[in-house]
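Quick one, probably user error.
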């Protein structure tokens, strides 16, 4: 406990020692650390409160180690105090975040919360979306909004609409979501601003994207999520020195393997593979360490890493198939199609890409993959057409971007 309190105090001391005010992110994280240290698990209520605090820390940091700690706390509390509704609901949210979708459904059932509950309906729709049932998810989001027009439900519908290319309505819903956020939810406000920025970035509107990102950073300072997106944007604008410096700050604040790969990818884009290699090695080691633990969270990252960093199509296809077995959605199918292409198995890649395109997903990089696959399979006219569609959707689609 003393160690945890010291860590929380250190987060605030860092800023003081450099004559800077603590950022909003540092302040919130320090408070969560203090809550975790102060809470014990000697009663059902205390165990639930501590598990929620650990989950909040994991949501803040997005580090899988923090998610593991929250997961362990929930399991221990269930073992000690028996089936408690709040714990099953929390475990369902953790399962979803860690791509354990069947377990998420099972825990929602065990929670015993009525299926008409807005909380349950939203999470079930989220699972539908991850499992490739986009229409079902969209219908559920729209139905839920009739009675619970909250910022998170608005953002959910905006996300699925953006996937299908309805960018104007998606942005309008994100804007409405911003207006629904209270003054006590500035991290949520920043997150929504980032989503609006991503929407603009994916259409090549870099100035518009930066404006959203900067507004997010002003609302909730020190948030690594904001800075990593600004770094990506700087990379796309070829402002390489600024991008590298910002990535290094992000990694110092929130070291995650996704960031290691991103800075490595940027060095490759800059034509500096020697500087990329240590970062890529570090990312791969973390991805594999997670998989060796039996976790599935990084299967998608491993598929993309082997396809685009190691240029190992067979290994990429292995991980893509593992991910597809868990979540059959356009992103996982695109990953498999691209891995098959990297393996030289063009006909199989073409068949898989056909299912991706049939979903109606509108993404410039998916269309670029479709163009390359069709051309390699001997369909050059279709390849050219898909390349033109990618450029129409995002004129800057060949610029630097992060694999997510």
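Nope, works fine. Designed sequence:
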């Amino acid at each position: 406990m003393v160690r945890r309190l010291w860590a929380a105090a250190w987060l605030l001391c860092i800023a003081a020692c450099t004559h800077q005010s603590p950022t909003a992110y540092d302040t919130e994280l320090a408070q969560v650390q203090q809550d975790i240290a102060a809470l014990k698990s000697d009663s059902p209520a205390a165990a639930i409160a501590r598990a929620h605090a650990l989950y909040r820390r994991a949501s803040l940091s997005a580090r899988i180690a923090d998610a593991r700690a929250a997961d362990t706390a929930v399991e221990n509390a269930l073992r000690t105090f028996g089936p408690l509704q709040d714990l099953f609901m929390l475990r369902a949210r953790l399962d979803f975040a860690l791509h354990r979708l069947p377990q998420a459904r099972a825990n929602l059932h065990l929670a015993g919360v009525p299926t008409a509950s807005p909380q349950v309906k939203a999470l079930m729709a989220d699972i539908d979306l991850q499992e490739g049932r986009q229409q079902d998810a969209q219908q559920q989001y729209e139905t839920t909004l009739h009675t619970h027009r909250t910022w998170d439900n608005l953002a959910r519908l905006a996300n699925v609409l953006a996937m299908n290319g309805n960018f104007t309505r998606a942005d309008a819903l994100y804007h409405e979501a911003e207006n629904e956020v209270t003054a006590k939810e500035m991290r949520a406000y920043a997150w929504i601003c980032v989503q609006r920025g991503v929407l603009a970035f994916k259409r090549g509107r870099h100035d518009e994207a930066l404006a959203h990102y900067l507004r997010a950073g002003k609302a909730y300072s020190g948030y690594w999520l904001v800075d990593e997106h600004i770094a990506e944007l700087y990379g796309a604008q070829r402002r390489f020195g600024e991008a590298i410096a910002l990535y290094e700050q992000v990694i110092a604040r929130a070291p995650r393997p996704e960031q290691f790969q991103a800075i490595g990818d940027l060095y490759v884009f800059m034509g500096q593979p020697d500087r990329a290699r240590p970062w890529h090695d570090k990312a791969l080691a973390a991805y594999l360490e997670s998989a060796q633990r039996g976790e599935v969270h990084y299967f998608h990252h491993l598929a993309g890493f082997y396809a685009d960093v190691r240029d190992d199509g067979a290994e990429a296809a292995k991980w893509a198939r593992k991910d597809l077995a868990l979540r059959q959605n356009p992103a996982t199918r695109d990953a498999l199609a691209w891995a098959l292409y990297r393996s030289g198995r063009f006909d199989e890649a073409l068949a898989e890409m056909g299912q991706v395109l049939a979903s109606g997903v509108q993404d410039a990089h998916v269309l670029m993959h479709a163009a390359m696959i069709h051309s390699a399979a001997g369909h050059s006219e279709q390849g050219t057409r898909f390349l033109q569609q990618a450029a129409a959707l995002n004129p800057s689609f060949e610029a630097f971007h992060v694999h997510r």
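Residues 269 and 368 are 17 Å apart (CA to CA).
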